[in-house]
């Protein structure tokens, strides 16, 4: 049955998990590193050693090449008391769901491309929708300088430009004499 928790010894430790002796037979079950702890496990040897007593729960059976492969989990069993922390296999279902959703990126890609190829009805630019557009109606909301001052500055700059050519003109007249 699935809610079978038992204490056993670690037979071997590999880079992807630990093989646990199954009591009463010569079989071993694998605790994959993703099932050793609720935290991320990079190196299973940091968690267990050969000969360690651990509490495990049988979470899966698979027949592969006429061999029965047993999947075990340590993270759903209290390592101190052996109490099943997940009697209804809820976290197991969540793990399975996570694996499935991560594999399917196709739908995300399509929506992304659709956004990139849209043209905004407000400003005519690509890559966003009108409701996300940052162009404000009127367009002058961002300018901090009042418009009147701007016009005066432009006019003043124009006068200076007019004076300069006159100076240049005077000097050329002097040379001719």
UniProtKB/TrEMBL annotation:
<keyword id="KW-0863">Zinc-finger</keyword>
<keyword id="KW-0539">Nucleus</keyword>
<dbReference type="InterPro" id="IPR003029">
    <property type="entry name" value="S1_domain"/>
</dbReference>
<protein>
    <recommendedName>
        <fullName>Zinc finger CCHC domain-containing protein 17</fullName>
    </recommendedName>
</protein>
<dbReference type="Pfam" id="PF00575">
    <property type="entry name" value="S1"/>
</dbReference>
<dbReference type="GO" id="GO:0003723">
    <property type="term" value="F:RNA binding"/>
</dbReference>
<keyword id="KW-0687">Ribonucleoprotein</keyword>
<dbReference type="GO" id="GO:1990904">
    <property type="term" value="C:ribonucleoprotein complex"/>
</dbReference>
<feature type="domain" description="CCHC-type">
    <location>
        <begin position="120"/>
        <end position="133"/>
    </location>
</feature>
<keyword id="KW-0007">Acetylation</keyword>
<dbReference type="GO" id="GO:0043489">
    <property type="term" value="P:RNA stabilization"/>
</dbReference>
<dbReference type="GO" id="GO:0005730">
    <property type="term" value="C:nucleolus"/>
</dbReference>
<feature type="region of interest" description="Disordered">
    <location>
        <begin position="146"/>
        <end position="177"/>
    </location>
</feature>
<feature type="domain" description="S1 motif">
    <location>
        <begin position="3"/>
        <end position="75"/>
    </location>
</feature>
<dbReference type="InterPro" id="IPR001878">
    <property type="entry name" value="Znf_CCHC"/>
</dbReference>
<dbReference type="InterPro" id="IPR012340">
    <property type="entry name" value="NA-bd_OB-fold"/>
</dbReference>
<keyword id="KW-0597">Phosphoprotein</keyword>
<dbReference type="GO" id="GO:0008270">
    <property type="term" value="F:zinc ion binding"/>
</dbReference>
<keyword id="KW-0479">Metal-binding</keyword>
<comment type="subunit">
    <text>Interacts with PNN. Associates with the 60S ribosomal subunit.</text>
</comment>
<keyword id="KW-0862">Zinc</keyword>
